[in-house]
Amino acid sequence: MMDRLKSWEGGLLVVFLATLALNASFAPEFLTVQNQINLFQLSIEKIIVALVMTLIIMNAEIDLSVASVMGLSAVVFAHLLNIGFGGVEALLGCLVVGLLAGCVNAVLVAKVGIPSLVVTLAMMIGYRGFARVIVKDQSLGGFPEWVTVLGQKGLVGPLPLSLVLFFVLLVLLGVLLHRTGFGRQVIVIGTNAEVARFSGVDVARVKATLFIMSAMMSALAGVLYAARLGSVRGDSALGFELDIITMVLLGGVSIFGGKGSMAGVFLSILIILNLRNGMALLNITGHVQTGVIGILLILSVLLPNIVNALRARSARA
Amino acid sequence: MNGLFGRVSPQTLRLVALFVALLATVLFFSTQIEGYLSARMFNRISTSAAVVLPVAVGQAIVIMTRNIDLSAGSILGVVAYMTGQALGAFPEMHPVLAVLLAMGIGAVAGAINGLLIAVGQVPSIIVTLGTLALYRSFLVEYSNATTITTASLPAWLVDLPQASLFSIGALDLRVTVALALAVCLVMGIALSRLRAARKFLAVGSNPDAAKMAGINAPWVVFIAFVLAGALAGLSGFIFLAKFGNITVVAGMGFELKSIAAVVVGGVSIMGGSGTILGVLMGTVLVDTIDNSLTRWELVSEFWRDALLGMLIMAAVTVDTLAARSLNRLRGKDGGAQ
Hints:
The structure holds 2 protein chains of 2 kinds.
Chain A: H1 2-26, H2 33-42, H3 44-58, H4 66-82, H5 87-112, H6 116-135, E1 139-140, H7 145-152, E2 154-156, E3 159-160, H8 161-179, H9 181-191, H10 193-198, H11 203-229, E4 232-233, H12 240-250, H13 262-281, H14 286-316
Antiparallel strand pairs in A: 1-4, 2-3
Helix pairs in contact in A: 1-13, 3-8, 3-9, 3-11, 3-12, 3-13, 4-5, 4-6, 4-11, 5-6, 5-11, 7-11, 8-9, 12-13, 13-14
Chain B: H1 2-7, H2 10-32, H3 39-64, H4 72-89, H5 95-119, H6 124-143, H7 155-159, E1 164-168, E2 171-174, H8 175-193, H9 195-205, H10 207-212, H11 217-243, H12 254-264, H13 276-293, H14 304-336
Antiparallel strand pairs in B: 1-2
C-alpha cells in the first residue's frame, strides 16, 4: 500500500518535472518567479478548495456545490461592500453564508442520510440561484482600493495574500489528514463506514465537520475570487467544481474513499497549473487545455489498471 | 392503514406521490398564472420536456447499473452540431436516416465511455468527468468556432417542432414529444418485462450476486453506456430541431438536468432500483416547475434556480424520510405477524 502510494507520487513527480522542462525549453520566461506566481494566482480559488475536497473524497463523499457557494459568497461580499459595510463585516458575512450552506449540506448528508452526490447536486443549483437573486443579470464591482490591492499585489515579498493562505492551508490540512486522530477517522470512514461505526467512530459528526469545512473554505475562496477579479456576476466561478475534483482525483485520491495523500494532490495541482500555463504559452485555447486534462485524468486510473492486468497475466503464465 | 402499506409496493407509492406532486404543481400555478391551463402552455412544456426526456432515460439506465454519465451534455452538443452539419451538407437525407445518424454518433461516444469503464475498469465518474471535457473540446476544435444556423437546415427539420402527430381539440401531440414518449414506452416495457433489460437492475442492485448468477456485468455496463450515448444523441437531434442555431456550448449542463430529473423520478443513485415511468414524471415535474416559474409574476425570474434547487432537495428529502418510516412500519408489521 505504502509502496503503491510512493510510486504514484513518484510518477506524478516525474510528470511534473517533464512538464517543467518542456515548458522551460519552449518559453524561457516560463521559469521566472513572477510567472510561477501568476500561474498559481490564476487558479488560486480552485486549488484552495481542492485541499478540502481531498478530505471529502478520502471520506468517500463528494461536494458538487463548492463552486456555487464560491459564487454566492463572492456576490454577497460585493453586495455587502456596495451597500456600505466595511471589509471585515463583509468577510464575516461571507463566512456566515458558508457556515449556513455547510450546515444545510451536513444535515442532509450526515443526519438525513441522502447520498452527498444528490444533496450537493441539488444545492449546487440552489446556491447558484441565490447568487442570481442577489445580483440579477448585472455585475457588481467598484470595490475599495485596499480590496484589489490585497487581492492582486504582493504581501510577503512577491507572494500575494491568497498564495500565502494556500501554503498555510496546505500544511494545516496535510497535518490534519495525516497526523491527527480526526484525519485517521476520515480515512477509516472512507475505507469502510460500517466498520468505522462499529468501532465507535461518530461517522455523522466527522462527515458534518467536513461538509461545513468545505462550504466555509469555498466561501473564503469566493471572497478571494471577488478581490482578485474586482467584479462579480451571477455566474462567477461557474463549473469550477469539475476542475477541483479533477485535481484531487489526478492526485491519486480514490473516488471510493480511503486512499490518497495531500502530497499527491499538491503534485497534481502543480502539474495541472504548469500544463495549462505551458499550453497557453503555445497558444492552445482553454477548451483544448481542459480536454487534455480530461485525457490525463482518465489515463491516471487506466494506466495503472493496464499495468496491473499485464502483471497478473505474466504471473499466471 | 397497515393493509394498504402491506399491499402497495414502495415503488408504486413513489409513483403515486410523484403524480400527486405534479398535479399539485399544475393546480397551484393555474391559480397564479393567467391562461395557464391552456393548449399553448401544454405544448410549451411538452416540447421542452421532450428534449430532456431521452437523455434522462439513458441517464436512468446508467444510474440503475450503479454508474453515472457526466458526459451526456457534451455528447448532446457534439451530436446536435455534427447532425446539423450533415443535414446542411446533404439536405436530401431522409429524416429517419438523420435520427439514426444522431443516435449513431451518440452511441459511438457512449461506447468509448463504456469501453473505458467496463474493460479499462476505470470508475464511471472519472471516465465521464474526463470525456465531459474531452467531447466538448473535440466540438470546439471540430467546429472551428463556426455556428450551425437555422438557415442552413432543411425545411422539414425547422418545421419539425411545430409538426403534430395528432391533435385533440387544441392539444397537439408534437412529433418530437411522440418520439420521446416512444423511447419511454419501449424502455419502460423492456425494463419490466425483458429478461435482458432486467440485467441493468441486477448489476446495479448487487454486482457480486449478478456475477455469481452468471451475468456478464462488464458487458451489461458497456451496453448501458452505449444506450445512454444513443439516447443523448436522440436528445441532441430534438435539441437541433427545437433551437436550430447550434454553437459550441450547446447542451452544456444537460448532464446535471438529466441527473436531477432521474433522481426526482425516484431512481436510486446507489443503483438497482427505479422505473422509467418515474423518470418520465420526474422530468415533466422539473420541467413544469422550471417553465412555470419563469412566468410567475409574484417572484422575479431570478428566483427560478434558487426555488428549483430547493424543490429538488425537498422532493428527495421527503422521499428518503418517507421510505425510511415506511420500512420501519413494515418491520413492525413483519414482527407482529
